[in-house]
Amino acid sequence: MNFAIFYAKEGYDISMPKLMGRNAAGASFIRGLLQYGRGDLASCLVESEEDAAFFKKEVALHSKNKKLSIFQNTQLKNISDIGGLYYPGPNISELAYHRASASLTNDSWSLCGITHTTSSARAMDSIEALITSPVQPWDSVICTSTAVKKNVEVVLQSRVDELRDRLGMTKIVLPMLPVIPLGVHTKDFNFSAQHRIVAREALNISAEAIIVLYTGRLSFHAKAHPLAMYQALERAANTTQKEVVLIECGWHANEFIESAFSAAAKLAAPSVRVITLDGRKEESRKKAWAGADVFCSLSDNIQETFGIVPIEAMAAGLPVVTSDWDGYKDSVREGIDGFRIPTIAPSPGSTGDLAHRHALGIDTYDMYCGHSSSLVAVHARKLTNAFTSLFNSPELRRKMGLAGRENARQNYDWRSVIPLYEELWDEQTSIRKAAKKAREEGNTGVSTRIAAWPARLDPTIAFANYPTIHLSLNTRLILTYPSAAKALDKLTEFKKLAMVDYARYVFPTPDELKSVIEVAEKCLPGGSSAAQLVANIEPQRRPYVLRGLAWLCKLGFLEFV
Fold it and tell me: 425-438: per-residue pLDDT in tens?
């Protein structure tokens, strides 16, 4: 290990009741680094004796041959002897200030951070701060996907444009922004035919049933809204006449959310048996992975950046059905490992009010994410077709499962990912040493327009690269119901669902919905442009109703072409 690790137990702990993706990712990373990292020294920076004790346990558990080097904030100079510090988040700016203090120079050591979610206020502030803090070209912030790198670049560019216009700034010093995926321990997901039999018996599921698995936090506003999945599973089950079981292996934050999931599943997928397992328990996770036939994760949320669960599913040999969204675009190969379902979101610039409400504290971060995700939809017909194809063909499931397993083993096992970290750290060290030599020789080296709040951008601008396409006036849309009356009746039912009603701020008014759906009915069967659907709406309301068409797509009333 040629970098020390900033180790705080909270960032690597998977035993907490409210388990987050960054905790699971951190625990998996530290295990991978200790197992596959080169060198015989395991170094860490801690803020408490408790954290030091936990790091010692990690080393004892995962690496028998590494020597320990543990130091606290008062011993920051020790990092100079190691070469760099890895921080499990994007906020390396504060550490850059620490590095420059206490008689340390900017080229004493390198910093390496990593993105997890980038949509929170704290994360956005961390990214924005890179422009004005003393970070250097030998520092880095690892982006876990191409999509999140573009998001980071959008925020940085917005801040740069503002400073150029307001202060005439001409010189910019930025850290490296490499794309390196998260990893998994693929051996943890090896399950035999016997494991499958035992798991299904324990769950009281027949050998002939098709089990579709979702794993992760069960949150309709902050992870993945399940309504499209429920509806598609119902349609696919009816089409194939298969017994379909959905396992949701995760955890609800509270009883309200748990009740919302249950009510939506009963309404949208009455013929699909739904089993909920506590995903925080290893025994539950193993039963779910071992027994499943197909994996599904339709992420539609801006707080997602990479998405580790499809990688785990591929490691388990399962074909995957995911949304074409954020990091899933990098990891899931369409038609090879499974299916990536196209997504649609409002065009950039149409949800500035959501960012403004969050910035003012009118909406919490959860509500901000929920409002944003309510305007993101997957293509319902393609989703149904994906399930139908997989349900009807054991051979397709086997073929995609094998391809995904090889993809996970070759590209996402920590055995392959940790060397990418170390190659990056070597490069950072080389750049830093060259700059330090130039400084010591007296050569001059690196010391290093819009009125927008770069850390609170309209989410459709900041995350413009997440969806497959954007909803515009030219987007063609088709009513999925045979008549406006039937659509409006069903919409009334759906709007009563807790997981729909919570986001009523983004709903068009009842009169606006009636107008849109009646125009859509007149344009059957070929559909119409979004411009036609909103032509009768008052001009000042038209942008809100236009983006609301994505909400109607999300609920399955409109389908985009």
Answer: 999 999 999 988 88
